[in-house]
Amino acid sequence: MMGGKSSTIAAGVCGAMFVGYCIYFDRKRRSDPNFKNRLRERRRNQASVKQGTGLSKLPDLKDAEAVQKFFLEEIQLGEELLAQGDYENGIEHLTNAIAVCGQPQQLLQVLQQTLPPPVFQMLLTKLPTISQRIVSSQGSLNEEDLE
Description:
Oligomer: single chain
Number of strands: 0
Largest sheet: none
Helix content: over 70%
């Protein structure tokens, strides 16, 4: 009976010491003058990563090899995501592929035959947003060419 009581007391003391150390460490961390700055910076980085997940960086449209590589990667990624049931991101990658495709009408016909109608509708609604991205990226490329 003494052994069980002493082990219970020891466990309670260890638990109290652990909670005390957690409180001490948290107070020390929060009193650090750079804590808030690092926390804000980490949150900004996480927010930018979340925003940029669906938006792939478009390749240089003048480099045919880079465009072809980008096209194949986006098609493959889009198909994989659609197979996993992640329709939103899969559609995003397929629209990126359509945007850089040399013959988008033929690609759309193939996709119309292979994708379920609701998914194809989602794809069609996303097309205007990707065309705006291409126009804006071409505009920034032209500004860079002037320098």
